Task: inverse folding
């Protein structure tokens, strides 16, 4: 489930990168139900297929963010929670997603292993929500 969640998040953030790059309104998810259904579909994939999705979505997100120009990074986009943020917020959103779910996997890293600055920013985000 967690791997599907992280892969789906990369695809969703890719939608926001597309929005920032083109000005075409592209929501992270078409609906909360679509988000949940996509994660469920991914969770049911064979391990190799799920891993391929994660790699593809991560690579595509990295390539699309690398292609953004300075002005595009300032473009406003709307998060799944309805907040309007500049595209400069997208790397933080991805970092938060990946780090929190790396801890959720329970395979080694804990919150104590994450950088202090990251944890402080994460706490600020949680309190603000």
Result:
């Amino acid at each position: 489930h967690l791997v599907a969640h992280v892969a789906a998040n990369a695809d969703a953030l890719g939608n926001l990168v597309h929005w920032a790059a083109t000005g075409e309104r592209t929501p992270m998810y078409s609906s909360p139900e679509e988000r949940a259904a996509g994660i469920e579909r991914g969770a049911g994939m064979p391990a190799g297929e799920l891993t391929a999705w994660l790699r593809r979505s991560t690579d595509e997100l990295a390539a699309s963010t690398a292609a953004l120009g300075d002005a595009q990074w300032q473009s406003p986009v709307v998060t799944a929670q309805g907040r309007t943020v500049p595209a400069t917020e997208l790397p933080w959103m991805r970092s938060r997603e990946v780090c929190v779910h790396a801890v959720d996997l329970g395979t080694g890293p804990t919150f104590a292993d994450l950088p202090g600055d990251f944890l402080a920013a994460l706490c600020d985000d949680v309190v603000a929500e």
User: Anything to note?
Assistant: Strands lie at 76-78, 84-86. The mean pLDDT is 94. The first helix runs from residue 2 to 22. The helical segments are 2-22, 32-43, 47-66, 70-73, 90-104, 116-128.
